[in-house]
Design goal:
Blueprint: E1 2-9, E2 14-15, E3 21-23, H1 26-46, E4 55-59, E5 65-70
Antiparallel strand pairs: 1-2, 1-3, 1-4, 4-5
Length: 80
């Protein structure tokens, strides 16, 4: 298991994940980033504003970014 840090960024501000999560694979990292982004988007929707310019950058224990998920890639917006 490795520790990964899920930092939330919106272009000008960053919310650093100081605790991190122990995950076993990059597939787990990708799945967790997607879950986190969708959770934040859901909470934002309850407030009436979704900020799709946000992203999650995942760093490994050495500080290297191993995955980036833009919020606009976390959901599919359709009109019906």
């Amino acid at each position: 298991m490795q520790t990964y840090y899920f930092h939330l960024r919106n272009g000008s501000d960053t919310l650093l994940d100081c605790e991190g999560r122990n995950l076993s694979s990059i597939d787990s990292v990708v799945a967790m980033a997607l879950l986190e982004a969708r959770s934040i988007i859901g909470a934002d929707a309850l407030d009436g504003k979704i900020a799709l310019e946000q992203r999650i950058d995942v760093e490994n224990g050495l500080g290297a970014i191993v995955h980036t998920l833009r919020f606009e890639d976390a959901v599919q917006v359709t009109r019906g």
